Amino acid sequence: xxxxxxxxxxxxxxxxxxxxxxxxxxxxxxxxxxxxxxxxxxxxxxxxxxxxxxxxxxxxxxxxxxxxxxxxxxxxxxxxxxxxxxxxxxxxxxxxxxxxxxxxxxxxxxxxxxxxxxxxxxxxxxxxxxxx
Length: 132
Description:
Blueprint: E1 3-9, H1 15-32, E2 37-41, H2 49-58, E3 63-68, H3 75-91, E4 96-99, H4 107-128
Parallel strand pairs: 1-2, 1-3, 3-4
Helix pairs in contact: 2-3
């Protein structure tokens, strides 16, 4: 069974933010060795989730895993995403659309925040001429 992946984000009027999501999807594809990866956005910019599911189905995906790119389980991830995924499954017969767990509570988020905090702390130490 061929599996496709969709990195699903809110979308922004700032194209740089949307491009950052596309870059994450490209890195996911490369790092995971996945050849079927798309991005999709809920609002502000194409493609939407339905279009991304259609693209992957056309490329032979029989199973599609939607990866929510949201830091917390808000209304969009909790309500909109399941509704759209269910509709996509009905429209694209023979394609199973699943939703992966979200990022909320993932231990790597704490590590990422620690990395950001430490990078600033190191910068302050260097400015003051002290070692960390």
